[in-house]
Design brief:
It is built from 5 helices and 8 strands. It is an alpha+beta fold. The protein has a single domain, classed as Jelly Rolls (Sandwich). Strand 4 and strand 5 form a beta hairpin.
Length: 152
């Protein structure tokens, strides 16, 4: 499947309401970070930007430089490597950690399969969050290592 790079963007643009999605975002963060207090979860959310995207939009393109970490709040995305779908991510999943942590090029293309909402943070914000919460850092770093191992 060929991707349309004209819709690609390093940082997705806002296309919708951010107030209604903040409550959903808080629920997803609670699911992802059950070991953190509500206050800690709100602190993490304060580092993130809520972004709504339409079906078919590309969030990340394989081989491109990336600086963003994404938490999928609502919807589904497909992960493509070399034009082959290798995974589907749903609400509560995260991606973009490899480039955000290592400054490496994107290892896969991520495409919204339906309208989605994501929470996004840049490399600096992610580093701050991971420095403050070592348990979360371990979770994100383990995912990055596992995903990198699958690219070899």
């Amino acid at each position: 499947m060929a991707t349309d790079t004209t819709t690609q963007s390093t940082m997705p643009s806002k296309t919708g309401n951010t107030n209604g999605t903040r409550a959903a975002s808080e629920r997803q963060v609670v699911d992802m970070m059950t070991h953190l207090s509500g206050s800690e979860q709100r602190q993490i959310l304060s580092q993130m930007e809520t972004v709504d995207l339409r079906a078919g939009e590309i969030l990340a393109e394989q081989g491109a430089h990336g600086r963003e970490f994404y938490l999928l709040v609502d919807g589904t995305v497909e992960i493509h490597r070399d034009d082959t779908v290798i995974a589907t991510f749903n609400e509560g999943d995260f991606f973009g950690e490899i480039s955000a942590l290592t400054n490496a090029r994107r290892t896969a293309t991520v495409v919204a399969t339906e309208d989605i909402t994501v929470e996004v943070m840049n490399r600096r914000q992610l580093a701050t969050v991971l420095d403050l919460w070592p348990e979360l850092a371990a979770q994100v770093q383990t995912a990055a290592q596992d995903r990198l191992a699958s690219t070899s």
